[in-house]
């Protein structure tokens, strides 16, 4: 070793750069010393250095220089190892050898070595041996060392990588050194050590293998644990530094790094905290610190929440409660903190012990968390609302298993808590939120809340979900269907069943194929399968000791009853037809329906009730008639035959034999008991069922039934609803009886001609009957008395009833057999519809002198209906009679006639499109019909024609449809919203943009855009489709229409619409093309100002882009989508600003000057519009309004005045609230309430920090106090001012002034006095 020591000293004396041989020699010496624990060699080195006047500091500086030089990775690591070995050597002068600079260089070497593992050699290939074991004398060791050094010198010039074992050994030595060197005197070294050990896992994760990474992480953990000892400084400061350094690791996305950070905090530091309050407090504050530094994006934020909860779970109960209170406060902070709060609250509620225990309401911190989450459901930011609703749904699912939590959760959701509304009210608002993500989350919460609310579901809430089934967005409709179906699946109450039937079944007509399929699937599961399961449970042997409603415990009877609703029935037919075509209808359903009918009949007989009053369960025959069309073999013929004989023989006493009852004079229909109507409907559906299964009937029963049906038809004594069923069944039976198709057609034609002939005879008989008596009585003087008139009334009523059934039968025959001869039928029908008419075109055919319209209005209505069916079958007649239909549509005073003609004109539009197209303006007039049914029917039919492209969205058709958005009928408004928001947006996305400006003129009844005036007739017709006037109702209706159109536009179309409104309305007004004196012109300009300042046309690019990106992120968008949205937002911001400067502002300036010159009241609307437009550009007003400095000053003043007025209004409301409560308080309490701070505390939290509101509150409180004092003075009460001795004032001339005489100078000074009060303070 003497030679090694000599070389070391010689190198130090040479003061040349340290070579690797020097480091190897020193490493050999130190290794030997540490292994043998022999201090002779190291002491010899120290003595030799001392004899050469070389200090230990020079040795330390040389090693530090080697660490910093970084000649190679191996040299730096070797130098670091030598330095640590020197510190660990026996009897080492640690305080002399340890320097902060050397220690920092050591940490730098470790960081670089971890960062560049490619330079490391495998652990199996050591760069050299770790030193031989000492055997015998030291000479052997010295010889071995020389051999090692000689081998190293041969490759000294090569770049060598460090050995991984050396790095691990280096970190082990560093851990040992931490026990010798106390870093409390070197805070910078301690901080650097903590940061280095915390950064190593993040640096090594991508380049180290899993085994080495694990070992490296464990070593870092031990070093950090060593740093958290009292000898290294204040434990609280050190723990805070460690936690701060570990924060990036805990929030890191990769699991291994995050596991290291969490493991150290949860396992090591929590354990240390049991013996140290400082560490315990630091760990308790760590979750709060992480909340402040949590990322904003969804996935990293979720990972952060998970990490935070791992730490919170490790805390004691007191610190958990403290953290929960902090989260509640954070839920009222900035947007990013509110989002994070609503994400962490559900995890707190579900994960922590005690959070979900709601036994003590006042002290339960779980309840506080739940209330905070519910409050965020009404947050001003859409992202927060959506996240809060979604997370609340998770809480409902998680806590509903515990009975105690379930009861309290149910109470909070239903009635709310302190300062918050119940969830039912909140969900109603959120289900119709303007943001799709919020609506979707609200519907999800509703579906999850069903297990809590049970069968006590709120009716308004269910209706809200039902309305959401017609949402414009497909995803919202799907969620609404799921929510409503989940309620129907669990609670088959009448309320739920009715709402499901009305909302879900209609979606079979949805444009989205997936929704149609979902509708079919749900109907099959929730309706048809229930009926089938009922059959399996009950079978044919049904207990007869219970009431009918309890025979089927699943509410099947109520379910069947809802199927017969007039609005549900057509959709059910379409669903059954679609399922049948796909062969998804099961025969078990038909069998179950038959068993239900049998059970009802058996129970009726068991109770000894007369069979004449029995009817099958409502809806059973209807559903069986639809199902039997596709599973005819499942229906028993004996069952049908029995019930046909039953309904045919046991007719109710008050059966409606015809449309005319006894004593009919002027009424179209008479009131009929529900039993009779039900019996009649059952017979119709039974006939349809027989028709469906007729192909499988035996020949003889089929022939008997056909004969029976024909006989009943020839009697013309049935209700029209039964006529169609008999005719369809008779046609089907004839096909069953015939051997081939030709024979079947011959049989059908034979009885069709027979029925037509008899029907024409009935019509001729009735027409002659009403014509002849009038001719005879017209020659009598005086006319017959009323007593004589009543004598033939019974026979006349019977003839009229037969005539009505006969003419209806003619129409039905024409539909099933269009090839039948109409030669004898058309004159008779023409005579009826033109009776009493003075039309010269009808003089070619005989017309009776009496008016059938007045004498028999029902016959008149059916005649028009039959003529429409005839025209559908004959194109030549249609060409002749369509003008007559249009004429009747315009002049008829019967809503029934107008409704039927609208239906027929829609059919004509499909069959004869070119003939009807020219009359479309006449048909659209029915959209403003006085009768709601006619308006709704017209809207639905025209909407279907528009979807099928039989009618085009052009001309005035679109503008006339706009009025339906503000119709008096709620149903029509809902249909219009769905048409414009869903169908029209997809089919014609540019229509709203192209027609917007024209709609402003048309709705205000202004013709300035056309440049011509309309004729009187055209003006009267167009006046129906205007909302003219400046009253509040008319203006709000127009604005609702404008808002609906703007919501259909894309951002680029909104910008273009903004420019078009400025150019075609405001510029036209400034150029004189739009009159400012005309009332309609003023309304157009006022509407333009309101549109330009509305929130629908404004694009919140600067602030809205980030929120939009966040919403996209919440819906599953990636970071690329968010960045794209941000770029789009910046582009829109620039476009809006450019449009304002180049297009809008010059027009506004010119128009303002014109309005000022004419002293127009529109100047106020212009300034309000400009104030709103430039509200987001306060810092850029100087650049935007560079052309008009006066306007710039006025706008700034208006903005300030508006904010001041708003603050004063808020303050006045708060003071008024306090004054109303003064009557119930003591004088002391009144004085306290008048305190401005007290009044300010009663304001909402978002206004308490507003300086303007605070100032206004103080002014209002002072004014209220002054008024109170003045009232006391006027009442004669003593005041503190009365006790003050006020000196008397003398006049300037030394004499007191008399009476009202005042010097002229004083009066003049008062006249010149300047008033500094602003206008809004007067």
Automatic annotation (TrEMBL):
Pfam name, any one: Cnd1
UniProt KW Nuclease keyword: no
Predominant localisation class: nucleus
Keyword annotations: Cell cycle, Cell division, DNA condensation, Mitosis, Nucleus
Ranges of Basic residues composition bias in the record: 131-140
Record's compositionally biased regions (Low complexity): 121-130
Region feature Disordered, mapped onto this chain: 121-150, 772-794, 1103-1124
Domain of life: Eukaryota
Condensin complex subunit 1 C-terminal domain ranges (all copies): 896-1070
GO cellular component: nucleus
InterPro entries for this protein: ARM-like, ARM-type_fold, CND1/NCAPD3, Cnd1_C
Cell compartment(s), UniProt: Nucleus
UniProt record, GO biological process: cell division; chromosome condensation
TM annotation in the entry: none
Protein name: Condensin-2 complex subunit D3
């Amino acid at each position: 070793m003497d030679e090694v020591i000599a070389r070391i000293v010689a190198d130090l004396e040479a003061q040349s750069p340290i070579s690797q041989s020097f480091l190897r020699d020193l490493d050999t010496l130190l290794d030997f010393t540490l292994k043998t624990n022999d201090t002779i060699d190291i002491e010899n080195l120290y003595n030799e250095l001392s004899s050469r006047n070389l200090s230990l500091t020079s040795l330390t500086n040389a090693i530090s220089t080697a660490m910093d030089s970084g000649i190679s990775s191996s040299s730096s690591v070797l130098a670091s190892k030598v330095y640590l070995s020197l510190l660990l050597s026996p009897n080492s002068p640690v305080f002399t050898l340890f320097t902060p600079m050397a220690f920092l260089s050591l940490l730098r070497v470790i960081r670089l070595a971890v960062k560049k593992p490619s330079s490391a050699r495998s652990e199996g290939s050591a760069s050299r041996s770790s030193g031989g074991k000492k055997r015998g004398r030291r000479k052997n060791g010295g010889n071995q060392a020389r051999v090692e050094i000689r081998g190293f010198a041969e490759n000294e010039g090569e770049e060598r990588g460090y050995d991984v074992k050396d790095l691990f050994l280096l970190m082990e030595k560093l851990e040992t050194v931490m026990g010798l060197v106390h870093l409390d005197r070197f805070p910078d070294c301690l901080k650097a050590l903590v940061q280095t050990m915390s950064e190593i896992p993040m640096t090594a994760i991508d380049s180290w293998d899993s085994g080495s990474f694990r070992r490296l992480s464990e070593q870092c953990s031990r070093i950090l644990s060593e740093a958290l000892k009292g000898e290294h400084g204040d434990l609280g400061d050190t723990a805070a530094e460690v936690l701060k350094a570990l924060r990036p690791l805990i929030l890191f996305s990769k699991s291994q790094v995050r596991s290291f950070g969490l493991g150290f905090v949860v396992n090591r530091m929590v354990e240390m905290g049991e013996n140290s309050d400082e560490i315990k407090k630091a760990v308790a504050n760590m979750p709060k610190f992480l909340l402040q530094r949590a990322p904003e994006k969804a996935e990293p934020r979720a990972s952060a929440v998970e990490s935070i909860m791992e730490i919170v779970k490790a805390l004691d109960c007191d610190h958990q409660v403290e953290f929960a209170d902090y989260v509640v406060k954070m839920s009222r902070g900035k947007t990013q903190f509110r989002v994070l709060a609503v994400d962490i609250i559900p995890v707190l509620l579900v994960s922590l012990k005690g959070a979900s225990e709601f036994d003590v309401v006042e002290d339960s911190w779980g309840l506080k968390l739940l209330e905070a989450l519910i409050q965020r459901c009404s947050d001003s930011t859409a992202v927060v609302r959506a996240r809060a609703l979604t997370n609340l749904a998770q809480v409902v699912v998680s806590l509903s298993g515990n009975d105690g939590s379930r009861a309290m959760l149910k109470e909070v959701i239903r009635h709310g808590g302190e300062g918050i509304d119940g969830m039912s009210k909140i969900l109603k608002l959120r289900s119709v939120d303007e943001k799709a993500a919020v609506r979707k989350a609200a519907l999800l919460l509703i579906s999850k809340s069903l297990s809590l609310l049970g069968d006590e579901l709120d009716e308004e809430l269910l209706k809200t979900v039902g309305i959401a089934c017609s949402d414009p967005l497909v995803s919202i409709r799907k969620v609404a269907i799921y929510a409503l179906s989940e309620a129907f699946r669990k609670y088959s109450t009448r309320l739920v069943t009715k709402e499901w039937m009305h909302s879900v079944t209609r979606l079979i007509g949805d444009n989205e194929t997936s929704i149609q399929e979902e509708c079919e699937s749900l109907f099959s599961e929730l309706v048809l399968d229930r009926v089938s399961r009922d059959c399996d449970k009950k079978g044919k042997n049904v207990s007869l000791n219970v009431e009918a409603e309890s025979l089927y415990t699943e509410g099947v009877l109520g379910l069947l009853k809802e199927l017969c609703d007039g609005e549900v029935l057509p959709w059910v037919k379409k669903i059954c037809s679609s399922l049948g075509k796909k062969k998804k209808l099961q025969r078990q359903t038909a069998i179950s329906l038959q068993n239900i009918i049998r059970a009802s009949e058996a129970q009726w007989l068991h109770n000894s009730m007369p069979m004449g009053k029995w009817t099958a369960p409502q809806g059973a025959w209807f559903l069986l008639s639809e199902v039997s069309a596709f599973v005819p073999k499942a229906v028993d013929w004996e069952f049908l035959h029995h019930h046909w004989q039953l309904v045919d023989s046991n007719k109710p006493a008050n059966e409606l034999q015809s449309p005319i009852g006894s004593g009919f004079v002027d009424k179209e229909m008479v009131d009929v008991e529900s039993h009779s109507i039900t019996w009649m409907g059952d017979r119709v559906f039974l006939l349809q069922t027989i028709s469906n299964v007729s192909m499988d009937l035996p020949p003889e029963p089929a022939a008997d039934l056909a004969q029976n049906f024909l006989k009943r038809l020839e009697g013309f004594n049935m209700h029209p609803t039964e006529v169609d069923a008999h005719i369809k069944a008779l046609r089907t039976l004839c096909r069953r009886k015939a051997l081939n198709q030709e024979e079947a057609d011959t049989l059908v034609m034979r009885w069709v001609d027979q029925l037509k002939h008899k029907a024409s005879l009935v019509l001729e008989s009735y027409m002659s009957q009403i014509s002849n008596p009038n001719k005879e009585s017209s020659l009598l003087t005086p006319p017959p008395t009323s007593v004589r008139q009543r004598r033939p009334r019974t026979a006349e009523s019977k003839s009229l009833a037969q005539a009505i059934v006969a003419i209806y039968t003619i129409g039905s025959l024409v539909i099933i057999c269009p090839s039948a001869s109409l030669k004898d039928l058309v004159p008779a029908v023409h005579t009826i519809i033109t009776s009493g008419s003075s039309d010269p075109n009808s003089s070619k055919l005989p017309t009776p002198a009496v008016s059938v319209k007045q004498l028999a209005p029902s016959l008149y209505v059916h005649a028009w209906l039959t003529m429409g069916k005839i025209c559908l079958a004959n194109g030549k007649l249609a060409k002749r009679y369509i003008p007559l239909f249009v004429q009747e549509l315009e002049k008829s005073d019967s809503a029934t006639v107008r409704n039927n003609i609208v239906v027929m004109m829609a059919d004509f539009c499909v069959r004869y499109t070119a003939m009807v197209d020219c009359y479309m303006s006449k048909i659209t007039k029915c959209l403003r019909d006085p009768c709601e049914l006619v308006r709704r029917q017209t809207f639905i039919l025209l909407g279907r024609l528009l979807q099928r492209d039989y009618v085009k969205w052009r001309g005035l058709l679109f503008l006339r449809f706009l009025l339906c958005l503000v119709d008096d009928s709620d149903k029509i408004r809902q249909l219009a919203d769905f048409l414009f928001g869903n169908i029209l947006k997809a089919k014609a996305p540019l229509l709203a943009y192209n027609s917007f400006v024209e709609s402003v003129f048309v709705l205000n009844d202004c013709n300035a855009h056309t440049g011509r005036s309309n004729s009187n007739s055209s003006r009267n017709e167009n006046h129906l489709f205007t909302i003219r006037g400046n009253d509040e109702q008319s203006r709000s209706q127009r604005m609702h229409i404008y808002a609906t159109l703007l919501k259909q536009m894309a951002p680029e179309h909104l910008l273009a619409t903004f420019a078009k409104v400025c150019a075609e309305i405001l510029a036209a007004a400034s150029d004189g093309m739009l009159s400012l004196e005309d009332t309609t012109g003023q309304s157009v300009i006022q509407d333009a100002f309101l549109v330009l300042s509305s929130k629908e046309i404004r694009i919140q690019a600067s602030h809205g882009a980030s929120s939009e990106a966040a919403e996209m992120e919440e819906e599953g968008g990636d970071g690329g989508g968010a960045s794209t949205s941000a770029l789009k937002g910046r582009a829109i911001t620039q476009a809006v600003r450019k449009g304002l400067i180049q297009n809008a502002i010059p027009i506004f300036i010119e128009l303002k000057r014109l309005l000022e010159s004419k002293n127009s009241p529109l100047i106020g609307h212009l300034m309000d519009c400009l104030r709103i437009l430039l509200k987001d550009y306060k810092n850029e007003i100087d650049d935007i309004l560079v052309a008009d400095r006066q306007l710039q000053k006025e706008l700034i003043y208006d903005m300030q005045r508006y904010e001041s007025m708003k603050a004063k209004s808020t303050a006045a409301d708060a003071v008024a609230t306090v004054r109303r409560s003064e009557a119930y308080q003591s004088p002391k309490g009144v004085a306290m309430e008048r305190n401005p701070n007290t009044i300010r505390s009663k304001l909402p939290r978002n206004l308490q920090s507003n300086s303007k509101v605070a100032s206004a509150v103080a002014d209002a409180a002072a004014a209220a106090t002054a008024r109170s004092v003045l009232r006391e003075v006027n009442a004669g009460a003593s005041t503190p001012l009365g006790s003050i001795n006020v000196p008397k004032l003398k006049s300037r001339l030394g004499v007191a002034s008399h009476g009202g005489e005042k010097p002229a100078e004083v009066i003049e000074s008062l006249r010149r006095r300047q008033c500094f009060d602003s206008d809004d303070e007067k």
